[in-house]
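cron nightly-structures :: item 1 of 1
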Amino acid sequence: MITKLDYRGEIGVILMNHTDENYVINPGDKIAQLVFHKYEHIKWQDVDELPTTERGKGGFGHTGK
């Protein structure tokens, strides 16, 4: 559920031609794609220490097995 719509400006696309040849963009040509995606607002909580976990101190991907 969208609860806040606050952007009202234009959405622009930066185009750059890295060649020495002219490139013509005609009305109706597709030059970009836009994806709308939900994102979360997070409220961080500072703590002095973290609780122990099943992984322990083994690091990323470590299960201890």
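cron nightly-structures :: done
The mean pLDDT is 82.
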